[in-house]
Structure formats: C-alpha cells, structure tokens
Design goal:
Bound molecules: NADP nicotinamide-adenine-dinucleotide phosphate
CATH superfamily of the largest domain: Aldehyde Dehydrogenase, Chain A, domain 1
Distance between the termini: 81 Å
CATH topology of the largest domain: Aldehyde Dehydrogenase, Chain A, domain 1
Number of strands: 20
Strand order of the largest sheet: 14-15-16-13-12-17-18
Radius of gyration: 24 Å
Number of helices: 15
Helix content: 25-40%
Structural class: alpha/beta
C-alpha cells in the first residue's frame, strides 16, 4: 500500500508496536485503522497486542533496567540529548505526522515538537541534580542521609490532544531518573509515539528502555496496572479514566500520577482594557481548537466591562480560520472525531435551551463533518453543561459578575482544579485571586504558562502529582534513607 503521509524520512512512519527494541506485530492478528480527522482518510494500521505481549514489554523493561540505572548520569544525559536533537532535526516530519493523525494546524504541531523536545533537554540535565540530603544526626556516632534511586519500570498512558509532548513530559523525566518506560499512546495518535521510538533507537537509547505498546485500552491498562513489576503509573487523560486506573493500581500499590481534565475559569477584572483581555481570552480558549486541558472554558467578566469585552471577543473570534491543519493560515483544525462534534452540539443546545444567548457560531459554515465552528455564548449559568463539563471544543461561555468574591465563588464552583486565568492590574485583587482560586496553576495577565521548568498539575479532580520541573522527576524517584552507625566509636575514643 502506498504511504498516505509524505515524509522526508519515510522510516519515521511505523505501523508496529515497539517492544524491547523490536518492531512487533500483534499475536492475535488484530489491526486497527488510524484515520485523519480532517477527512476520514485511512492513514495506516496498528496492531493490537495481546496481554502476554504487554507482559513481554515488562520483561524487556525489566531486563534493561539494571544497565540503564547503572549508567553514569552524564552518559544517560548524553543519550537523552541525542534523542532531543533528533526530534528537532526531524521536526517537520514529526509535525506532518501529528497534523495528519491529530488534526492540529501544522505550525502548532511544529510548536509541539519543540515544546516536547524541551522536556527531554530539561530532564536530561535535571537527572544530574537528583541529590539526596545530609541529615544532622540525632543518633550518637552516626551519619544520616538520603539517596535518590529510580522507582523502577514506569507505565505511561497518554491522550491524543498532545501526541508528542504528553509522552516526552513523562518519559524524559522517568528515563533521566533511571527508569525504563512502557508507553501506551492514545489509539487516535499512535504514529507520533512510534516515530519517537524510532528516534530513540537512533539515539542509542538501549532496547527495553523506551517501549510503545498498542491495543485495546482497557485490556492493556488492566495488565499494566496489575503488574507488580511496574512501580509507577503516569496517566494523562480524562478524570473518568484516571479514577479507574487509580483503582486498578491499588492492588499492586504503585506510585500513581494523574494529569486529568480541566475546566479553567478566565476572570476579567473591572480595571483592564477589555480589548486586550478579550484577545487574550480568545487565545486561551481556542488553542488546539479548544481540545486543551488548559482551555479557558468559563469566562467571567466584570459587569462594567462585559459588553465591550463580548464585542471584542466576537470580533477576534470571527477572524479565526477553520480548516485542514495542513493548509496554510489555519487557526483551528477538525475536532478529533464525530463524537466530539456531537458533544459540542449538545452543549450548545443545552445552553440555549436554558436561556444562554448564541452570539456567534454558524455550523453551516463547517468545512466537513468533523469540524465545529467557534461558538460564543453569553449569559451562561452554573446549571448549564457548558459550565459544568470540560467541553473540549471551540465553545466559549461568558458570564458577568459584580464582586471579586462572587467571581471567586463561581470560578471554584467545579470539581476540576487544573488551571485558572486572571486579568487585572490591581495588586490586591491579584493577591486575593491567587490565594482564593482552588487550582494547581494560576496565570495572571498571561495566557502562556506552560514549559519544561514548571510544576504542571491540578488539584481536586484534576489530578495527583506534578509533571515538569524539579517536581516532575521526583515522581520517578524513591528516597532511600541511610543511617551509618558506629562512626568514630572505636573504644576509648
Ligand atoms: P481519555 O479518553 O481518558 O484517554 C486517555 C488515554 O487513556 C488513552 O491512551 C486511552 O486509550 C486510554 N483509555 C481510554 N479508556 C480507557 C479505559 N477504559 N481504561 C484504560 N485506559 C483507557 O482522554 P482523551 O480523550 O484521550 O484526552 C482528553 C482528556 O485528557 C481531557 O480530559 C483533557 O483535559 C485531558 N488532558 C489533561 C492534561 C493535563 O496535563 N492535565 C493534558 C492533556 C489532556 P485509547 O485512546 O486507546 O482509548
């Protein structure tokens, strides 16, 4: 079959799992088609591995662990940096792959390759700084301290919205800490993950250290969660699946970190330029077509600037272009599949039926079945699903508030607690919001908040643990305490 995705290096397009350094078919012979969300075209097929093959990946990781952890830290760093460099050298091919399977505009995909590579560089270096402590001793003639050790094999389960960066944010931290990883990418976006495996091999990452398994998600996860040899599970995805995996990992008592859904508030104070704030809100809402855990889903605008804000928001939103991410000048690609379009439609209908106003969003203009034109709703209320649910679509909901306390109460009125945005120049309001918002991350007067050095993560039902930054590598390290007794206790001394 001719390859649909045209790459400068066709060997980056892999249609097998990658286990113990080998490209692997499924023993059961089952294959699944992967399609382009922009037009439904079949891009290729992936095998579904059988449970025994998932266990074989654990065997491979176990076999590779001792040598990887024993490597000098600067040697591990060099291998990871070689992987990082290969990602950047192949940036265009990786971006093309990603846009085909995920749908995001090509410039965004290029940006994600750089963002994803930045985690590898950062953690490669951070691996050198996994220091233990010296503890002033309360025990006579003893030296006390801690050393850091890799936790062991890590299973990484990732979503489709950031097919590359959600893998490297976990894998680079684990591998820098000395752990082998078994990645289970989303079924919609396996090819980017497999290209990462190809590049890991070229970077001389030893066989068994970076594995990619594919298959029926509940079945694969069940094996990974039950496996006692897997010591850490790091998941990014929906809160529903996160809860399930936490439960399934209880018997094997794993370290579990969860990066789950968000429902970010965007609070606009009375003292800001409504145009500046509206343009920022459009950017925070429509990144990745709204299919982003950081998307500004609930926009709360002070009543004194509400009307002007809505006007500028609508104007900016009207300029967004929707189409195939491979075409030039596209802001929003397709949604990931038809179910996502149905969900978005349902959310809009529900809001209108409960009294919200549809300011803009004409679906007859959508360029294809998986596309959803950006929607602006005003007068949204907490009883609407646009408020309660993570909508994961280009549907923006705006509501007015009158006091800071009211804005805070409304912003916190959700089970989620990933990220929040605040626009205001009043230092007392900034501080009040910063302290009062029940979120893991708060961006003030900025829509850019992520990056390799920061502790990314949420509170409440948005997750457990942190990724990125010094906290990110700790998720894959154990602290071993030591007490060295009998120091200087030679008789007579
Ligand atoms: P999802 O449905 O939870 O899927 C995520 C991963 O879990 C995929 O690999 C999926 O595999 C697997 N999975 C699905 N059902 C499963 C089951 N019953 N048992 C075990 N594994 C299962 O999430 P998604 O739709 O891909 O991603 C969107 C979600 O991710 C949103 O909620 C978003 O907020 C969240 N997210 C969070 C962050 C963060 O950093 N906090 C970042 C990005 C995305 P298959 O694809 O093969 O089914």
């Amino acid at each position: 079959m001719t390859q649909t995705i045209k790459l400068s290096d066709p060997r980056l397009f892999r249609q097998h799992a990658y286990v113990g350094g080998k490209w692997t078919y499924g023993d059961g012979g089952r294959e699944e088609a992967v399609t382009n969300p922009a037009n439904g075209e079949v891009l290729g097929h992936i095998p579904w591995l059988e449970p025994d093959q998932i266990r074989a990946a654990v065997d491979a990781a176990e076999g590779a662990f001792a040598n990887w952890r024993a490597l000098r830290v600067d040697e591990r760093c060099e291998r990871l940096l070689a992987w990082h460099d290969l990602l950047l050298e192949n940036r265009e091919d990786l971006a093309i792959l990603m846009t085909h399977e995920q749908g995001k505009p090509l410039p965004d995909a290029r940006g994600e390759v750089e963002y994803g590579a930045s985690f590898i560089r950062w953690f490669a270096e951070e691996g050198k700084r996994t220091f233990g402590q010296t503890i002033p001793s309360h025990i006579p003639n003893a030296a006390l301290g801690t050393i850091k050790e890799p936790v062991g094999i890590a299973a990484l389960i990732t979503p489709w919205n950031f097919p590359l960066a959600m893998i490297t944010r976990k894998a680079a931290a684990a591998m820098a800490a000395g752990c082998p990883v078994i990645v289970k990418p989303a079924g919609e976006t396996p090819f980017t993950a497999l290209a990462l495996a190809e590049l890991a091999e070229r970077a001389s990452i030893p066989a068994g250290i970076f594995n990619v398994v594919l298959g029926d998600a509940p079945q694969v996860s069940e094996v990974l969660c039950a496996e006692e040899r897997i010591k850490a599970l790091s998941f990014t995805g929906s809160t529903r699946v996160g809860r399930l995996l936490l439960e399934q990992s209880a018997n094997s008592v794993k370290r579990v970190s969860l990066e789950l859904g968000g429902n970010a508030p965007f609070i606009v104070g009375p003292d800001v330029d409504p145009k500046e704030a509206a343009f920022a809100a459009v950017s925070a809402k429509f990144q990745t077509g709204g299919q982003d855990c950081l998307a500004a889903d609930r926009i709360l605008v002070h009543e004194s600037v509400h009307d002007a804000f809505v006007e500028h928001f609508a104007e900016r939103m009207a300029a967004l272009t929707v189409g195939n991410g491979l075409d030039s000048e596209i802001d929003l690609g397709p949604l990931i599949h038809g179910k996502a379009v149905e969900k978005a439609m349902g959310i809009v209908d529900d809001a209108i039926s409960q009294g919200a106003t549809l300011v803009a969003g004409d679906q007859s203009q959508a360029p294809g079945p998986n596309y959803f034109m950006p929607v602006l709703l005003t007068g949204v209320t907490p009883s609407m699903s646009v408020w309660r649910e993570e909508n994961f679509s280009p549907v923006a909901g705006i509501t007015a508030y009158s006091t800071d306390d009211q804005a805070l109460e409304m912003a916190n009125d959700t089970e989620y607690g990933l990220a929040a945005y605040v626009y205001t120049h009043d230092i007392r309001r900034i501080w009040k919001m910063l302290r009062g918002l029940e979120y893991g991350m708060v961006a003030v007067n900025s829509v850019k908040m992520t990056g390799a050095p920061i502790p990314f993560g949420g509170v409440k039902q948005s997750g457990l643990g942190r990724e990125g930054g010094t906290a990110g590598i700790e998720e894959f390290l154990e602290t071993k305490y030591y007490c060295l007794g009998a120091l200087g206790s030679v008789s007579g001394s």
